[in-house]
Amino acid sequence: MAIVLSSCNVKDKTLDFEVYETSESGNKLTKITEFKTLDSVVKITLNPEKTLQTITGFGGSFTESSAYLLNKLSQKNRDTILQAYFGEEGARYSLTRTHISSCDFSLNNYTYAPVEGDMELENFSIEEDRDDLIPMIKDAMAISKDGFKIIASPWTAPPWMKDNNAYVGGNLLPKYYDTFALFFSKYLDAYKAEGIDIWGVTPVNEPHGNGNNWESMHFTPEEETDFVQNHLGPKLEADGKGAVNILGYDQNRAGLKEWVDAMFATDESSKYFAGTAIHWYESTYDYFPEALQYAHNKAPDKYLIETEGCIDSQIPVWQDDAWYWKKEATDWGYDWREPEKKYLHPKYAPVNRYARDIIGCLNNWVDGWIDWNMVLDRQGGPNWFENWCVAPVIVDPEKDEVYFTPLYYTMAHFSKYIRPEAKVISHDNSDESLMVTAVKNPDESIVLVLFNEGDTAKSFHINLNEQSIDFSINEKAIQTIVIPSQQ
Questions:
Q1: Whole-angstrom Cα distance, residue 165 to residue 56?
Q2: What are the start-end ranges of the E strands in 368-422?
Q3: How does pLDDT run along the chain (487 residues), one tens digit per residue?
Q4: What is the rounded distance in angstroms from the CA atom of residue 406 to the CA atom of residue 337?
Q5: Using CA atoms, how far apart are residues 287 and 284, in angstroms rounded to an integer?
Q6: Model-level pTM?
Q7: Which of 57, 383, 390, 359 lies closest to 210, judged by CA?
Q8: What angle do CA 458, 366, 415 make, to 5 degrees?
Q9: How far apart, in whole angstroms, are the C-alpha atoms of residue 90 and residue 349?
Q10: Neighbours of 461 (CB within 10 A)
Q11: Are 147 and 141 in contact (CB under 8 A)?
Q12: Which of 391, 356, 341 is CA-nearest to residue 285?
């Protein structure tokens, strides 16, 4: 039942709205119908006539590790998880990612083109994906009513195309630029033959490398731009795949300026780039608004999509919701970052990091946000390099148990209610300690997402087109407010 409150500003008219909350106190996307009355009131004014970026979607990533774990669970639990992510009653993921050949969240190293010197890629095969990865994607497609987009990224070219002939590190040799472009075209064809359309690709995941730990390949901004401008873009266009969106960069936001300066330097360099992909691992709290704004201003008509973020270098905490609200998590930079940049990596609460980052991104021109693995085990894998991480859903395949962490509900606050083609709208917020973002959906409903990181509840007075609503948010809570179309 919708909550109906009358507004003192509107004669004989009420404004319906619904509130869903996830909180440290135990709410899990719970519909709230009773609100606290507090002396201090936060005033938010929505300006739906002033629209900003168009939303591409929200979601998570199909990895071999996640797919392998799903296949080890009972059919009931496997279906429960996929319904939770893609079903109408679930998070309704609309934008996803997967890996091309192996990544660290694979069971082993592999490439679709293992035969050295096979310039025409006659031995190209996606056979490695048939047991786990492809069935997971197909099952998700069967569940999703509205469908979802897939971005695919290679962590490396086949080793024989690189100057170090290895999965880890090295550079793509220029003599293989055309062959690697063919590699993408073959991949798109192979997946299409399976009934899976790929919406977008990135030339490589994390072109700065990852400390020579797992699959990687280095590009400078100029090298990647050359590869896309003169090889990948023309090849996909020639093969009838010009509609596939090429997103450049695909790494942390602190490097955005030098990359977008190269990618979008001229009409020729930017022709085949549909946009820019970014990750969040530069900091556990800073979402780099200046860098995001710079990237948008450099290419205002292009996509700006967060393609990867997770609680990294951390073994998951099992069935303890409270931990996800406490500032006890660490990341790679807490231990290994150079001393002058360790300030960017303090301990943090996982829920806080997700909520802050997604809202911060939406308020600074990002149009899509993709989580990393959808499912991991209690160790934070499987991961062939033992690069343990956290996923919103943790499973124990031996006991056939499933744990939906608070991160799952945090993601759903956005993905379930903010739909593709929604428009981010301008808003004014009187409380800087509270994070707020707002959109207008294609059905004309207005959706706000609020995050209260503080230790005290807050009351709100929201103005929309000379109408108003009043409610409150608990301490340490995230809320989604849905205002149906008034037309």
A1: 37
A2: 368-373, 375-377, 389-390, 393-396, 401-404
A3: 233 333 333 333 457 899 999 999 999 999 999 888 888 899 999 999 999 999 999 999 999 999 999 999 999 999 999 999 999 999 999 999 999 999 999 999 999 999 999 999 999 999 999 999 999 999 999 999 999 999 999 999 999 999 999 999 999 999 999 999 999 999 999 999 999 999 999 999 999 998 889 999 999 999 999 999 999 999 999 999 999 999 999 999 999 999 999 999 999 999 999 999 999 999 999 999 999 999 999 999 999 999 999 999 999 999 999 999 999 999 999 999 999 999 999 999 999 999 999 999 999 999 999 999 999 999 999 999 999 999 999 999 999 999 999 999 999 999 999 999 999 999 999 999 999 999 999 999 999 999 999 999 999 999 998 898 999 999 999 999 999 987 7
A4: 28
A5: 8
A6: 0.96
A7: 383
A8: 65
A9: 24
A10: 15
A11: yes
A12: 356
The whole-angstrom separation of Cα 140 and Cα 98 is 13
DSSP string, 79-123: HHHHHHHHSTTTT---EEEEEES--TTSSS---S--STT-TT-TT
* Cα dihedral 428/431/433/436 (nearest 10): -30
Closest by Cα among 341, 338, 339 to 284: 341
Dihedral of CA atoms 205, 181, 65, 89 in degrees, nearest 10, equals: 90
Token pair, residue 294, equals 């710079």
User: What token pair was written down for 182?
Assistant: 């063919």
Supply φ then ψ for residue 394, to 5 degrees. Answer: -110, 140
> Is-contact 91 98, C-beta < 8 A?
no
Take residue 208 and report the two structure tokens written for it.
């700065």
DSSP result, 424-439:
EEEEEES-TTEEEEEE
Tell me the pairing of strands 389-390 and 311-312: antiparallel
Cα dist from 102 to 173, 212, 214, 225, whole Å: 20, 15, 10, 24
332 token code pair: 């790679």
